């Protein structure tokens, strides 16, 4: 008899988190090792419990799911991460993949699809759902993004600010160059971090330079 697949469910919505945990607990071959209410809890619980798979939401307090995934990839590489979230925009999908997620499903997926994805990730495979898999294939077929089509989720102003961030400008310098108030720059920088799912300025600069900005 094979050991059950041990799963940790991380989501900040109690009804969804507990509901999914109860649902998975009824599935033969799956054992719910624990739950977490935010990204920081998910990292702590996963490094302690070492489940086979973490089912990870993206938008969570304290630490978002992308950053939590990145930390787990470094601290507990044997733990597979399956992202299960409301968002299917390309920025979030590719941020999760870059962080080390081995699966990505959109909430609303059928129970059978979630169970199959957990089983695949636990076995070392990758799964992204039919629609997302097609978009991922198209993305790589198109080659690396050019600076003009990278980060479509940003507004023109946010993109302009990201370009200056990537060039190494401080907030004060950006405010001076664009004739904006420091508060407006701070707000836009915060929006950029949120939309790119990055934790800090350094990570935003790396993402921007990878896409050809700030050169």
TrEMBL record:
Q: Is this entry keyworded DNA-binding?
A: yes
Q: Give GO BP annotations, semicolon-separated.
A: phosphorelay signal transduction system; regulation of DNA-templated transcription
- On this chain, the residues bearing 4-aspartylphosphate are 57
Pfam families tied to this protein:
GerE, Response_reg
Q: Print the keywords alphabetically.
A: DNA-binding, Phosphoprotein, Transcription, Transcription regulation
Annotated Gene Ontology MF terms? DNA binding
Q: Record's InterPro entries? A: CheY-like_superfamily (IPR011006), NreC/VraR/RcsB-like_REC (IPR058245), Sig_transdc_resp-reg_C-effctor (IPR016032), Sig_transdc_resp-reg_receiver (IPR001789), Tscrpt_reg_LuxR_C (IPR000792), WalR-like (IPR039420)
Q: Which residues form the Response regulatory domain?
A: 6-122
Lineage of source species: Bacteria, Bacillati, Actinomycetota, Actinomycetes, Micromonosporales
| Domain HTH luxR-type: residue ranges | 147-212
Give the matching SUPFAM superfamilies. C-terminal effector domain of the bipartite response regulators, CheY-like
Coiled-coil ranges per UniProt: none
In its UniProt entry, the species of origin is given as: Actinoplanes aureus
Q: What is this protein called?
A: Response regulator transcription factor
